[in-house]
Design a protein that fits this description.
The protein is built from eight helices and seven strands, in the order H-E-H-E-H-E-H-E-H-E-H-E-H-H-E. By secondary structure, it is α/β, with parallel strands linked by helices. Strands 3-2-1-4-5-6-7 form a seven-stranded parallel sheet, sandwiched between helices. It is globular. The chain starts with 7 loop residues before the first helix and ends in a 7-residue tail after the last strand.
């Protein structure tokens, strides 16, 4: 019982002095994840193709949480850009302990009608881009004693949609690939002290959800056991667990945060 003293759990969640990179670092999900990491004590780099948006969010995070936060430009589908982003993060933050792969793309359409370029775009961003970010981050982490990687998958990795509810076969296929990629990388890098996990959000009140018509949203809602769509902050607890010492015995896992949508 020597370690089970008052405050032991909150201490395991603290991440003061650690350095985190969110690729796909703009938008509501990125904001919630950056706030989570900053609130735990991390300095944060936010990277996307639209650096101005990342710069703006970084300024808000730094002012609100009193941590160092920076914006960077990164095209996840371009290996040179990914490698440069990792190097810039290490240089400007002094190291890299956590990477969150949040960049994503989708293509709507019936599978028989989807052009090859649409399929390839989704795979290049969601699968190949995630692999590139993991690989270049791991090279730094291997040389520096380990770290934590969290890949953002989707409940779509575990369920399929009829055409009237979703025509997103490239997206759901890519997110299923992320689940297995996460397991494989965790197995490959465990001996280097690198934990690799994923979060699979359900339907969140942002992004693609806002483009659905009212009837589709109602049908989707009926599948969610808790009776509501998620909000970005609903991912905070899972992220905090997976990146901190509170989750130090977790790797190769995909935490589904979907209000029960995958079983509804």
């Amino acid at each position: 019982m020597t370690d089970l003293r008052p405050g032991f759990l909150s201490e395991r969640f603290r991440m003061d002095g650690r350095r985190a990179l969110i690729i796909g670092g703009r938008g509501a999900l990125a904001e919630a994840m950056a706030a989570t990491l900053a609130d735990l004590g991390c300095s944060v780099a936010l990277a996307s193709r639209k650096q101005a948006d990342c710069d703006e969010l970084a300024g808000e995070i730094a002012e609100t949480f009193g941590v160092k936060a920076i914006g960077l430009a990164c095209d996840i589908a371009d290996e040179a850009s990914v490698e440069r982003t990792i190097a810039q993060t290490v240089e400007q933050l002094g190291g890299l302990d956590v990477v969150v792969n949040n960049a994503g793309a989708s293509w709507w359409g019936l599978p028989q009608d989807i052009p090859l370029k649409g399929w390839q775009k989704v795979m290049d961003v969601n699968v190949t881009g995630t692999f590139l970010a993991c690989r270049h981050a791991a090279r730094h982490m291997i040389a520096n004693g380990g770290g934590a990687i969290v890949n953002i998958a989707s409940v779509g990795a575990f369920i399929s949609f009829r055409p009237e509810d979703g025509q997103v076969v490239p997206y759901t296929t890519s997110k299923a690939a992320i689940v297995h990629l996460t397991r494989d990388l965790a197995a490959q890098w465990a001996d280097h002290g690198i934990r690799v996990n994923a979060i699979a959000p359900g339907t969140i009140e942002t992004g693609m959800t806002q483009t659905l018509d009212e009837a589709t949203q109602e049908r989707t809602m009926r599948r969610i056991l808790l009776g509501r769509f998620g909000v970005p902050a609903d991912l905070a607890g899972a992220l905090a667990l997976l990146v901190s010492d509170a989750g130090s015995f977790m790797t190769a896992q995909t935490v589904i945060v979907d209000g029960g949508q995958s079983v509804g």
